[in-house]
Design goal:
The structure is a single chain. By secondary structure, the protein is mainly alpha-helical. The protein folds into 4 domains: about 1-75 and about 250-345, Rossmann fold, CATH 3.40.50; about 90-195, Glutamyl-tRNA Synthetase, domain 3, CATH 3.90.800; about 355-400, Helicase, Ruva Protein, domain 3 (Orthogonal Bundle); about 405-505, Arc Repressor Mutant, subunit A (Orthogonal Bundle). Helix content is about 45%, strand content about 10%. It contains 19 helices and 13 strands. The chain has helices at about 20-35, 55-65, 90-100, 110-125, 145-155, 200-210, 230-240, 295-305, 320-325, 340-355, 355-370, 375-385, 395-400, 415-420, 425-435, 445-455, 460-475, 480-490, 490-505; strands at about 5-10, 40, 105-110, 160-165, 170-175, 180-185, 190-195, 215-220, 245-250, 255, 280, 285, 335-340. It has a 3-stranded antiparallel beta sheet with strand order 3-4-7. Helix 8 (about 295-305) crosses helix 10. The longest helix is centred in the N-terminal third of the chain and has 16 residues, at about 20-35. It binds one RNA strand of 76 nucleotides through helix 4, strand 6, helix 6, strand 13 and helix 10.
RNA sequence: GGCCCGUUCGUCUAGUGGACUAGGACGCCAGGUUUUCAUCCUGGAAACAGGGGUUCAAUGCCCCUACGGGCUACCA
């Protein structure tokens, strides 16, 4: 890599950042860090109508939660600011004039209504209206009108500035991921570069900013591929083609089933979050996030990194540092990736299993506090070590271990019917006696004593064990029964069995 | 409709002309472990979109078809 690597993530603040955007940011970040470069956050808010309060902050918070560190932005600073396009209006004005003077752009006075009518007319004739080298000769613009007319209109009317697409040129472009892309400029239309409200469109602002901010690689979603020719042509028109950035168009994230790409509007409709963090829109609408759903940021990032990229090895679990080391644009796939929620869950489970018991106990302890339960961290750590392999998320820890903190309020009816046979109460009473007489209350000792009682009296193992379990935890499933007894303690165990005998036999 | 991009198990993917009896992972199924459920272990089913070329040889290169995706706004 000869030049300094500088990449940007350039979302527009029209709402929360969705996971496709997070992945784009991630790939930019990984690429930058791999090559010792800078990761820049630029806010593209040239469409004031779609601006949503809080979106910019949401984007910044999301990247932070993900562990994606911003080198330059409004908050992080940097020498190439401002990093928000609405504050760069004057810059764009200067450059659009340059383009008009060089004959690469022109004023157009057609109203939206006029163009709409035209489009409809064409449609009736089964043709498609394109503002191009052919039609612009018949429309109201500075190429067809006299100087005087143009000047009058410029002062009295709304106008836009359009790019004058060169006629019949074969463009050969290169994409790092897709290779050569060929297109004839006759298929392109004279896109608007400057809107009547005095703001540039995305295309203009994007090229100017990327140039001024010395962006070396444009890594963005595939939805931008069709506008790549326009962008390349703009670089040429400005005379910047010699230090044009390299382009890499990422495959899109697709819906798990059905058609189309994953979009913000999918919200929670698909049965999983599409946003990193919880979002509340100014109008009150809310959408859930991965964070609040119990995902660890490193698991979330690991999962996302593999949607469209693969290291070429069989490794699947990557820390951020490992991702940076392994990442390369050449190994990014070309085709869209369907989102798979099951695999996301699996990743979180993997990360949860890797965490230490103490770390999980601290997280669990916070949840317990919210439920009004406070317990000492040593006890919680013991419980966590017993149940963590049964959970995929921190928020599943409670359902696996609630019985350590409160007595069961009901007993699984199916198990009672199947296992709580005639006379079981008497046998459980004997077990209570055995337990009560234990001086060494260790798991193994409890185990040996109870098993000995069952064997000596030739009792049904399943019946006794399940009856004990249901008495203590309310259901037939759970971790090792004797560890539960050990952790509950002698008195609590005895109480619970006695309560069960009384309640069930009634 | 037009333009552009893509197509390996259900899903994410490995594969860069001979190493392919096409590998891994998720999910699924079966067996084992377990007092139980979960975990865990072992095993299994499961794919090169179709058709033409090029080549001694094609998952891989070329062409066509089909299918999927994106774009086609004074949105980004």
């Amino acid at each position: 890599m000869k030049k300094n690597v500088r990449v940007r993530f350039a979302p527009s603040p029209t709402g929360p950042l969705h996971i496709g955007g997070v992945r784009t940011a991630l790939y930019n970040y990984l690429f930058a860090k791999k090559h010792g470069g800078k990761f820049i956050l630029r806010i593209e808010d040239t469409d004031r109508n779609r601006f949503v309060e809080g979106a910019k902050e949401y984007i910044e918070e999301s990247l932070e939660w993900c562990g994606i560190k911003i080198d330059e932005s409004t908050n992080a600073g940097g020498n190439f600011g401002p990093y928000i396009q609405s504050e760069r209006k004057d810059i764009y004005k200067k450059y659009i004039n340059e383009l008009i003077e060089s004959g690469n752009a022109y004023y157009a006075f057609d109203t939206s209504d006029e163009l709409d009518t035209l489009r409809k007319q064409y449609e009736l004739e089964k043709k498609v209206f394109v503002y191009n080298s052919e039609t612009r000769k018949r429309l109201k613009n500075s190429l067809t009108l006299s100087k005087e007319e143009v000047n009058t209109k410029l002062t009295n009317e709304n106008f836009v500035v359009r790019f004058k697409i060169p006629e019949n040129e074969q463009l050969i472009m290169n994409d790092v991921i897709r290779g050569e892309i060929l297109i004839n400029t006759n298929t392109l239309d004279d896109k608007i570069l400057f809107k009547s409200d005095g703001m540039p469109t995305y295309h203009l602002a994007n090229i100017i900013d990327d140039h001024l901010m010395e962006i070396s690689h444009v890594i963005r979603g595939e939805e931008w591929l069709p506008s790549m020719p326009l962008h390349v042509l703009l670089y040429k028109a400005f005379g910047w083609e010699n230090n044009m950035p390299e382009f890499a168009h990422l495959p899109l994230l697709l819906k798990p089933t059905g058609n189309g790409k994953l979009s913000k509007r999918d919200g929670d409709k698909l049965g999983f979050p599409v946003f990193p963090l919880f979002w509340k829109a100014p109008n009150g609408d809310t959408a859930s996030g991965y964070k609040e759903n119990g995902y660890f940021p490193d698991a979330f990032i690991n999962f996302l990194s593999l949607l469209g990229w693969n290291s070429g090895t069989e490794q699947e679990i990557f820390s951020m540092e490992e991702l940076i080391q392994a990442f390369s644009l050449e190994k990014v796939n070309k085709s869209g990736a369907r989102f798979d929620h099951d695999k996301a869950k699996w990743f979180n489970n993997q990360y949860l299993q890797k965490k230490s018991d103490l770390e999980l106990a601290n997280l669990f302890s916070e949840e317990l506090k919210e439920k009004g339960i406070s317990s000492n961290i040593g006890y919680i750590t013991e419980i966590v070590s017993l149940i963590k392999e049964r959970a995929g998320f921190v928020n599943e820890l409670w359902s696996q271990s609630f019985f350590f903190f409160e007595k069961p309020t009901e007993y699984d009816k199916k198990i009672i019917k199947k296992r709580w046979k005639e006379g079981i109460g008497e046998k459980l009473k004997n077990i209570v006696l055995i337990i009560d007489n234990l001086s060494n209350f260790s798991r193994d000792n409890i185990h040996d004593s109870v098993i000995k009682y069952i064997e000596d009296n030739e009792l049904n193992m399943g019946q006794i064990m399940n009856s004990m379990r249901v008495s203590l935890v309310g259901s037939a499933s759970g971790p090792d029964l004797f560890r539960i007894i050990e952790l509950l303690g002698k008195q609590e165990t005895i109480d619970r069995i006695n309560i069960a005998i009384e309640k069930v036999n009634k």
